[in-house]
Write a structure and sequence with these properties.
single chain; 12 strands; alpha/beta; about 180 residues; globular
Length: about 180
């Protein structure tokens, strides 16, 4: 993707692509938008600490789950291929049903937004980094919400929700968030 390689910025101390200002705003679900979001998710994982007992033995994979309609297609797998988290291989799983508390990261697509509040309630205080796109996602208890603003992918953080789930977010992640609640 020429657009993706033409502009990158350094955030979190790592290179993260940013959606460049295009002649037209990225349409919902555009491949470029989701390449950027996949890169962000990988960095969110590296800048989040889970409780010591949340990951289990090294033989357990670190599960990044996509709930509902999958806007990433194969982009997310390509982004995380070969990555690990504290020695656990990082795998992508998809689900159309209730969120699985064995997921360490749960992405709730904007298309699943109507059920997000109930889905987030079913997780309780399980140590799951929840990431979504819907307007009320943070209000409903999500941890990170993606926003496309002036042709750039940004994100907001609900720090209280992260703490409720036993997650510690790096100050580097909080500094580059558009807003922290």
């Amino acid at each position: 993707m020429a657009f993706l390689s033409s502009l990158a910025f350094v955030a979190f101390g790592l290179a993260i692509p940013q959606v460049p200002a295009l002649q037209q705003k990225p349409s919902s679900g555009s491949p470029l938008e989701y390449q950027v979001k996949a890169a962000y998710i990988l960095n969110f994982v590296s800048l989040t600490e889970w409780p010591s007992d949340a990951l289990g033995p090294l033989s357990n994979p670190f599960r990044l789950c996509v709930l509902g309609a999958d806007p990433f297609r194969s982009v997310l797998e390509n982004t995380v291929r070969g990555e690990s988290v504290h020695g656990h291989p990082l795998v992508v799983e998809r689900s159309t049903g209730d969120p699985d508390q064995n997921c360490q990261v749960l992405f709730v697509s904007g298309r699943t937004a109507g059920a997000a509040a109930e889905l987030l309630r079913t997780l309780g205080s399980a140590p799951v980094l929840t990431i979504g796109e819907a307007d009320g996602f943070l209000r409903d208890g999500g941890v990170v919400r993606f926003v496309v603003e002036q042709g750039h992918v940004r994100f907001d953080v609900n720090r209280g929700s992260a703490e409720h789930h036993g997650l510690t977010l790096s100050s580097r992640l909080l500094r580059v968030a558009r807003s922290v609640q």
